[in-house]
């Protein structure tokens, strides 16, 4: 039986679903999945507010799940899909996990380390580099974040005017 290949857009839609799940619990809506041989082996959503831990980003959670699934810290035959460009911490974890391919949606002008502020994923001085595919469903990914922050600002404004 042959495994049906999904497109980057199809996988990114699953990462967006994780972002929407984060939104429902009041987290910044960032989602991530890790795919190995046509199967999702790790999934994460931002959980910093829930856990009050700065390291519970979507990518870190997905990487931990994928490592557990494979029984290895090396995720060499995987692709990671994330709705927002990885920050320095997550980019470092991706490099350390040996993930060869990174696909992200929206660019992050404040913390993006996959090409926006710097590119840790393709840094030649490291012992591992990743192939980076940016802008997959970028508008959709960006809209999820923009609408979330717009709602937050509106709620604050309403509380102020009470």
Automatic annotation (TrEMBL):
Presence of keyword Transcription regulation: no
MF (Gene Ontology): tRNA-specific adenosine-34 deaminase activity; zinc ion binding
Keyword Metal-binding among UniProt keywords: yes
E.C. code: 3.5.4.33
Entry annotation: catalytic residues: 59
GO terms classed as biological process: tRNA wobble adenosine to inosine editing
Binding residues annotated for Zn(2+), in chain numbering: 57, 87, 90
Matching SUPFAM superfamilies: Cytidine deaminase-like
Residues in CMP/dCMP-type deaminase domain copies: 6-124
Entry function: Catalyzes the deamination of adenosine to inosine at the wobble position 34 of tRNA(Arg2).
Family: Belongs to the cytidine and deoxycytidylate deaminase family. ADAT2 subfamily.
Protein's name in the database: tRNA-specific adenosine deaminase
């Amino acid at each position: 039986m042959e495994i049906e290949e999904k497109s980057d857009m199809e996988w990114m839609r699953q990462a967006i679903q994780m972002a929407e799940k984060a939104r429902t619990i009041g987290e910044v809506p960032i989602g991530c999945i890790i795919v190995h041989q046509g199967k999702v082996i790790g999934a994460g959503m931002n959980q910093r507010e829930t856990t009050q831990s700065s390291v519970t980003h979507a990518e870190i959670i997905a990487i931990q799940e994928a490592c557990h699934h494979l029984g290895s810290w090396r995720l060499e035959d995987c692709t990671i899909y994330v709705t927002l460009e990885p920050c320095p911490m997550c980019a470092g974890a991706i490099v350390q996990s040996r993930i060869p391919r990174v696909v992200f949606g929206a660019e992050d002008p404040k913390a993006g380390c996959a090409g926006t502020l710097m590119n840790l994923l393709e840094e030649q001085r490291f012992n591992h580099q990743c192939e980076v595919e940016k802008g997959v469903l970028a508008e959709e990914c960006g809209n999820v974040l923009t609408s979330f922050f717009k709602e937050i600002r509106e709620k604050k404004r309403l509380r102020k005017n009470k």
